[in-house]
Amino acid sequence: MLALVLDDELRLVDDYPAPTPAHGQALIRVIKAGICNTDLELVRGYHGFQGVLGHEFVGLVEQHPDPDWVGRRVVGEINLTCGECDTCLAGRHTHCPHRTVLGIAGHDGAFGEYLVLPTENLHPVPPDLPDDAAVFTEPLAAAFEILQQAHIHPTDRVVLLGDGKLGLLCAQVLALTRCNLTIIGRHAAKLQLAEQWGIATRLVPAEEDLPADLVREVDVVVECTGSPAGFDQALRLVRPRGTLVLKSTYHGRTHADMTAVVVDEITLVGSRCGPFAPALRLLNSGKVDVLSLIHARYPLTDALEALEHAARGGTLKVLLDVHETRTSGG
Amino acid sequence: MLALVLDDELRLVDDYPAPTPAHGQALIRVIKAGICNTDLELVRGYHGFQGVLGHEFVGLVEQHPDPDWVGRRVVGEINLTCGECDTCLAGRHTHCPHRTVLGIAGHDGAFGEYLVLPTENLHPVPPDLPDDAAVFTEPLAAAFEILQQAHIHPTDRVVLLGDGKLGLLCAQVLALTRCNLTIIGRHAAKLQLAEQWGIATRLVPAEEDLPADLVREVDVVVECTGSPAGFDQALRLVRPRGTLVLKSTYHGRTHADMTAVVVDEITLVGSRCGPFAPALRLLNSGKVDVLSLIHARYPLTDALEALEHAARGGTLKVLLDVHETRTSGG
């Protein structure tokens, strides 16, 4: 099959072996896939992944032991877990130490014609939800993880730091709480989107120029800049005893002022993959704008160009069109 | 009065002006004071403090507008707050942005013959509690702040990292929960104290040699090493979705792996000053051993030597004897 493969280099391979579903797994024909910053970090060497990239997708079940599943349009959770270890049995499946992760660790991903996932990872897509929206389920679930981990009070002053594609999804999820929310970003065009959604914004082109009225005044800061410098900015904004939710992953370390964390008794919460069900409910309600985040579409044959495009400053979501939406099972 | 003063240098001054109580403040005759690592960090330039050092003390009220207070033996909370700002009104007094801090920021401390504090900062010492124990109220309150901020479950695997004087107090407070507690430290003699208290210990002389059975297995890690390297160790011990309580403050920054915090969804909790009332209740119950932590005593006239002693590796608490215990009010 055709697939975008990362090994010593990143290359498009037209005869990559199609995956074979193991017991309890579904073979899924990829319809669309989304490019995430994590994909770009993986190409830069983060995590040492080798294989087919891609973890955001919508697809059709092509093979499954239960015929009811065949032909269903699905999205899929990305952590493949053992289900048997203490971590899984404690309900922390996404942290299973034996896990592989679709397109990120030990399991080929969605930037190919087919992928396999266990049945328990699959979520049927509501029939009226377009592919272009369904493909955002995984990153929107990651945004919901914030509400899963931190209690955002309706009266809280909240700042979302970073106007990238994850930031703009997190902002829309945070806005559900009707908290007092402001997005701080560096790109006027992206912030304009948030303004259209009724979310307050502040354009802060340089790190130094944080709005003085927000410094040390924010109850909850969500750090989505994707860069190490975001941590310092977030720490300057959060009030003593406030909460700082960290969503950024990157290759490398942060030079962090942990003494300030102690003196101001800040709570830091690392936040990664989240629940698919509320993400699908929100998408299906139509009360979230994901389509405006789509900046470009490429066929899988142009996947290399698509990744280059995604890496350009100011770009939001780039999609790969892999297959047409149609039941191919018969 | 005689006082240990930090300005351009650290020096003993015998004609330092005695403090004058402002409205609502008490003049307190210091009986004993304890030397904390923060005092040593202040001497190294942390925080830029100038004035009389010292924030751990027990003393006698010598002057007070209400005669009932005069002659009472007291300990005192160290944050002098405005009581009027949003932070104070929200109940976060210890984070008042207008605060001064006894012997740490803008307010002369306890390494002198007298100090002043507002009445609301004072806690009478139970009559049977010896001065040698009462002088530990402030650091023991800081240990209680851990239980104030984090829910330690009785079934939790907890590691206290660091066998210094604050670590050994925190360990005794954590042990109250009957959680599954282990202290990891570098000093056999200090760990032996913990063993005497019935707390499990692991001697780990070098940072690299963390016990393999604890790595990524600990529900709650409390970092009390007082050094930037402690953060990395703590992060290696804590399980995914676990909690890391930070107690160490030091001059400088930490090179921190914040991506690991995100991927493992760790919660970090900065923890500083704590509640005096439970500390006094615990001291008064006799169910905590603070006297074994006293390694040396010096008269205030030898305060410079006392600080040198406190800075020597392996030293636990060094006390300054300032005045005899007796009501001097009459």
Number of strands of chain A: 20
Instruction: Give the H and E element order of chain A.
Output: EEEHEEEEHEEEEHHEHEHEEHEEHEHEHE
Runs of chain A in which pLDDT lies below 50 for 5 or more consecutive residues are: none
Span between termini of chain A: 19 Å
* Largest interface, counted by CB within 8 Å of the partner chain's CB: A-B, 39 and 39 residues
Average pLDDT across residues of chain A? Answer: 95
CATH class of the largest domain in chain A: Alpha Beta
Tally of separate helices of chain A: 10
As a whole number of angstroms, the C-alpha radius of gyration of chain A is: 20 Å
Domain count of chain A: 2
Strand content of chain A: 25-35%
Anisotropy-based shape of chain A: globular
CATH architecture field of the largest domain in chain A: Alpha-Beta Complex
* CATH superfamily annotation of the largest domain in chain A: Medium-chain alcohol dehydrogenases, catalytic domain
Q: Largest sheet of chain A, described in full?
A: 7 strands, mixed
Which structural class fits the helix and strand makeup of chain A? Answer: alpha/beta
What proportion of the residues of chain A is helical, as a percent range?
A: 10-25%
